[in-house]
Amino acid sequence: MELQDELPLDHKLAQVYRWGAAFCGVVLLVFGSLGFADQLSPFNTDGSNIAGLSTNGILSLISVVVGLLLVVGGVIGGNFASTLNMAVGALFLVSGFVHVFILDKGANVLDFGMSNVIFSFVMGLVILTFGMYGRVSSRLPHDNPYWRRRHPRQAAREAAAWRAMPGAGPASIAHAGSRTLSAGPER
Fold first, then answer.
1. Other CB atoms within 10 Å distance of the CB of residue 112
2. Which of 3, 17, 167, 174 could disulfide-pair with 81, CB 3.0 to 4.6 Å?
3. How many CB atoms within 10 Å of residue 50?
4. What confidence tens digit (pLDDT) does each residue in 12-40 have?
5. Which pLDDT value is given to residue 49?
6. pLDDT per residue as tens digits for the range 67-114
7. What residues contact 76, with CB distance under 8 A and at least 6 apart?
8. Quick one: what percent of the chain has pLDDT higher than 70?
């Protein structure tokens, strides 16, 4: 059993995951490509700046690889893009925390400056937000596939109630939870 098989699919949310991954990937691709265009040496730590961020050849390469990974995630879309966004966003945050402690040390081989740390935190939070959108909340709507997955008995009751209603066709049953929000909390 694969984790991807267990996650529900939802086409509306898939667009958020897809476009979020693609947008962040393109930003990283542009940054990395500008580093390659300046022909930076791989481990140079002399403070070469591109778009206000210090960089070197290795950071440009990492940016291009991660950017391509996010763009591929955007092309694939769905739960893959969501999970990829959450993983990459978490890695950006970890990178920001690690580089705070090694800013002026010899271990700073990626030539991070404070602007890079801030960018890492901001980009990590943006990517995480795109990945978690519609998946993580205490008040997900009842037609959300992640809510239905977490509350299968109530979702089945709501769908059965919709089937019993006169004039309820297959299209309205698929969105059975959206109109039961006023029914109150789950019991």
1. 24
2. 17
3. 20
4. 666 777 888 889 999 999 988 888 887 76
5. 76
6. 999 999 888 877 788 889 999 999 999 999 999 999 888 888 887 889
7. none
8. 70
Q: Under a CB-based contact definition with an 8 Å cutoff, are residues 82 and 43 in contact?
A: no
Q: Residue holding tokens 């239905």? A: 148
4-9: average pLDDT = 52
**What is the predicted pLDDT for the residue at 3?**
46
Q: Which tokens belong to 73?
A: 């995630």
Give the residues across from 54 on adjacent strands. 49
How far is 110 from 46, CA to CA, in rounded Å?
11
In which region does residue 167 sit, left (phi positive, over 0), alpha (psi from -120 to 50) or beta (all else)? left
SS (H, E, C) the chain: CCHHHHCCCCHHHHHHHHHHHHHHHHHHHHHHHHHHHCCCCCCCCCCCEECCEECCHHHHHHHHHHHHHHHHHHHHCHHHHHHHHHHHHHHHHHHHHHHHHCCCCCCCCCCCCHHHHHHHHHHHHHHHHHHHCCCCCCCCCCCCHHHHHHCHHHHHHHHHHHHHCCCCCHHHHHCHHHHCHHHCCCC
pLDDT digits (tens, 9 = 90+) for 34-43: 888 877 667 6
- CA dihedral 187→136→10→155, nearest 10 degrees, is -10
